[in-house]
UniProtKB/TrEMBL annotation:
Residue ranges crossing the lipid bilayer per the database entry: 12-32, 53-73, 93-112
KW Transmembrane (keyword) present: yes
Family listed: Belongs to the sterol desaturase family.
A GO BP annotation: lipid biosynthetic process
Main location class: membrane
Stated name of the protein: Sphinganine C4-monooxygenase 2
Annotated keywords: Membrane, Transmembrane, Transmembrane helix
Fatty acid hydroxylase domain residues: 99-236
Gene Ontology CC terms: membrane
Entry-linked PANTHER family: STEROL DESATURASE
Amino acid sequence: MAFPISDEVLGTFVPIAVYWIYSGICMALGSFENYRLHTKTDEEEKNLVTKQTVINNVLLLQTLQATVAIFLLKVTGNDAGASSKSQSSTSLVVSAGQFVMAMLVLDTWHYFMHRYFHRNKFLYRYIHSQHHRLVVPYAFGAFYNHPLEAFVLDIMGSGLSYLLSGMSPRTSIFFFCFTTIKSVDDHCGLWLPAGNLFHIFFSNNSAYHDVHHHFHGGKYNFSQPFFSLWDRIMGTYLPYTIEERAQGGFQVRPAYKLKEHTGINDELVN
C-alpha cells in the first residue's frame, strides 16, 4: 500500500535535492575557463575556506532548516497527507500573482537584513563575514552562512514570503525550488553569454552579485535573489560592465571610478 507524501514534506526536501543537482551542473560548467568570471587560480588563492568546509556547513544548515520545517508541520498538524489547501485547484494567474508577491517579500526582507548585517560591525565581524570568506563564490556555497544568519535571512524570509503571499504548499514547492536555483546561479561565478534565462530576465544575476563580493567591502548590490529594485531605491546600486579576459572568460568592472572618502558612502564619479 502506497503512502502519499504531503506537499509540505516535498516542499521541505525537494529544494535541498535541487540545490545539489544544480550546483553540480554549475561546477561542471566551471571547468571551462571561457564561462568563468574568475580564474581557477583566483578561486584557490583568494578564498579563505576549503570546499569541504563549505559543503559541511551547507549540509548542517539544510539539516537544521529541514528539522525546523518538520517541527512546525508537526505542531500545526500539516505533515500527514496532502492538505486540503494544497489539493484545492488554483489558477495559473493566481499562482503567478503569489509568485510575484513572494518574490517581492523575500527581496525586501533580504535587502534590509542583508544590508544591516553589513552595516552593523558586530554582526558583520562575527556573523556575516563567514559568507564573505568565499571571495570567489562556489555554486554550492550559496547557502554557506553562519547558522544565525541562515535562520534570520533564509528561514524567516522564506516563512514570511510563504505566509504573506498566501500560496499553497503545492505552489511553494515550485517557488522554493525556483528560489534555490536562482540563489545558486547568483553564486556560481559563471557568465553564459547566451542560454541562461536568469541573465536574460533578471538584472540581478551572477555578475550583479559578483560586484557585492568584490568591490569596496560589500557596500553595494545587497539585493538578492531576484530584483535590483531596493538597491536602486536606496542608492546602493553600483553599475558595472562585463568584459572579456585576455586569458579567456569574463570579468566584472564598475562602470564608474570609485573615489573613497572617509565618510560612510563612496562617491561615484565619471
